[in-house]
Write a structure and sequence with these properties.
The complex is a heterotetramer, with 2 copies of chain A (160 residues) and 2 copies of chain B (83 residues). Chain A has 160 residues and is an alpha+beta fold. In chain A, the strands form 2 sheets. Chain A has a 4-stranded mixed sheet, sandwiched between helices. The C terminus of chain A is likely disordered. Chain B is built from 3 helices and 5 strands; from the N terminus they run E-H-E-H-H-E-E-E. Chain B has a single domain, classed as Ubiquitin-like (UB roll) (Roll), CATH 3.10.20.30. By secondary structure, chain B is an alpha+beta fold. The chains are: A alpha+beta (160), B alpha+beta (83). Chains in contact: A-B, A-C, C-D. At the A-C interface, helix 1, strand 2, helix 3 and helix 4 of A face helix 1, strand 2, helix 3 and helix 4 of C. Strand 2 of chain A pairs antiparallel with strand 2 of chain C, so a sheet runs across the interface.
């Protein structure tokens, strides 16, 4: 049911959101997450970022997590678009959009998908700075964020 | 079997992919890393810290102890930084 | 810093999102929540929904919560737009958009604001069905969702 | 003081607002609810279950025990259902 796309070109978040709810009277909540290439500042300024990915595996890995999100939450639609190639600051990197009847499902699924994209989807960021290219290091916070979805009960479940 | 390299593992090894035929005693991902690391300076550099190397067998995440089995495509890469 | 608008007319989520990140190289994450008027089904089908609000207080109440969100999380921008008047199924009701450097702040602030809009902002929904108008009842799940923001520490803080 | 009513409280009372002058012994929100409820059938109906009535004094949420003080505008309404 979900849509997964890997592409070089930019995406239109508004059009993707429209697609998730048109002719769907049961959709009451849409959450979108848009990841944007940050520019950094001063000595840390970035002139561009190149996203390398593992074609084939990246699609499979994201589709697997979309299916897991659909099994865990009551979703009416999911779209994940991840770009690759060279991007300049301000450009979109990734879109996760989730649709549900009530907000808690859409929020939880979008966070879950982002946490997994950060830690399990085979993408690698290389940032171009004045002194040259540098591979972005994985963040331990991202591992912690992904790990929280592995415990069966979550405080989030208090929400609608 | 086909080996793929990504990100700085690719840069250090100096190639995006290659076909290798490891000896029969190389049965796990971890053993394959050790065998590759002994193939030359560039490999030793790429695999100098096996703990930070991630692997996939036929496009599924694998651990050092995962058996290679009849794998056709094995990939090595650093921790992922997508999203 | 945040933008709060109450209006009869529809909003353009994409334009609001663009406004949050343009000329902001420090924005790496934007979360949007769009609430949509659901249509219901069969005997429960809704022909329209009228949103009544308390002018003056609604703006104040939302602005107070936007300021609280800005104090609690590292946000680069917040926009809340809430419609009032008569809406038909499929129409937008509310938009919450949050911008931050990293995703955890944007997600948490958007959920916080939605939880508070549901329980503390002076709006009341009246749904029109075949048998007449009916005031929507408050949900205890919404109170529980809002209450979770009152404890000082949250598992969410494990995330980036 | 000015009293505003919203949603079904407004429908039951039959007006959106009015100006009242409660006696001096009406000092809290709860006491004002009790005083209003005794003004007639429509008020009794609107305030029949005081537990579900929410109030705001000068556009800030208030509790039954909140003192009216020098309030200029008091609003009564059901639990909110926005968002």
């Amino acid at each position: 049911m979900g849509t997964v796309r890997l592409q070089r070109e930019d995406f239109d978040a508004a059009a993707e959101q429209r697609r998730l709810c048109e002719a769907r009277p049961d959709v009451g909540a849409i959450v979108t997450f848009t990841g944007i290439c940050r520019g950094g500042e001063g000595a840390d300024a970035i002139s561009a970022m190149t996203l390398e990915h593992y074609p084939g595996m990246a699609e499979d890995e994201i589709a697997r997590h979309v299916a897991e999100a659909e099994a865990r939450w009551d979703l009416k639609g999911v779209t994940v678009i991840h770009r690759y190639g060279r991007l300049i600051p301000g450009e979109n990197i990734v879109l996760v959009a989730t649709a549900s009847a009530h907000r808690a499902d859409a929020f939880a699924a979008a966070e879950f998908l982002m946490d997994y994209l950060k830690t399990s989807a085979p993408f690698w960021k290389n940032e171009e700075r004045r002194e040259g290219g540098r591979w972005v290091e994985a963040r331990s916070e991202d591992d912690a964020a992904a790990a929280r979805w592995q415990s069966p009960s979550r405080s989030r479940e208090a929400a609608e | 079997m086909k080996i793929l390299y990504f990100a700085w593992v690719r840069e250090r090894v100096g190639k995006t992919e290659e076909t290798v035929e490891p000896p029969a005693h190389v049965r796990t991902v971890g053993e394959l890393v050790a065998w590759l690391a002994a193939r030359g300076e560039e490999y030793a550099y790429a695999f100098e810290n096996p703990k930070v190397i991630r692997a996939a067998i036929d496009r599924t995440h694998a651990k050092p102890e995962t058996a290679l089995g009849a794998a056709r495509e094995i990939a090595f890469f650093p921790p992922m930084t997508g999203g």
